[in-house]
Amino acid sequence: MPSHHSARSRRSTERKGDLRERAILDTCEALLAHKGYNAMTVGDIAQGAGITRGALYFYFGSKQEVVVALVARTVEHLWERSRTTAQTDEPRQAIAEAMQRTVELWNEHGLVMRTAIDLSLTVPEIGELWSHTADLFITAITAVLERAGIQAGTEPEQASAMARALCWMIERTFYHASQESRETLQGASATCEHIWLTSAGLTT
Fold this sequence. Notes:
With 204 residues, the chain is mainly alpha-helical. It has helices at 2-34, 42-49, 53-59, 63-86, 91-119, 124-147, 159-177, 182-199. It contains eight helices and no strands. The N and C termini lie far apart (70 Å).
C-alpha cells in the first residue's frame, strides 16, 4: 500500500512540475513581448510564474536555459504542425498546407521565432535547435520537390539544393514580415508559396 501511495504522489508531483514548467515558459514568452530578452530577468520570470527564484532554479539554471526550452517547445510545435502536411501526396496541396501551418505558428509565436533567430549565432543550444529544425524542413521540402518531378541531388538545379535555398528564403521572409502585421505575413507567405510552386514547375 505505501508503495502505491508513493507512486501516486510521485505522479502528482510530476504533473505539478509539468504545469509549473509550462507557466515558466509561458511567462518567458509574455516577457519577451513586454521587456525583450536583454531586459527581462530570472526574477521577472519567477514572479510572473508565481514562484520564487529558488523554485525556478529547480527547473532552469539561467534565463538563457528558459529561453532555450521555450524555443525547443515552439519549434517542436512548428515541426509537428508542418510534418504531416508536407507528406501529402499531391505536391500543390502539400505546399499550400505547409505554408499555412507555418503562418499560423508565426502568428502565434513569431516573437519566439525571431528571438531564436537573433540568438542562434550567440547561444549554441539555440543555434543547434534552429539548424536541426531547418534540416527537417529542408528534407520535407526536398521530398515535395521530388514528388513534383524535380531531379534528386545536390547540384544547383536539383531538389536538395533548391530546398535549402527555399527554406532559408522562407525563414528570412517570415522573420521580417512577422514584425509588421498578420496581413503582411500572409502576403509574404503567399509570395513564398508562389516561388516554391514555380520552383517545382507547378504554376501552369
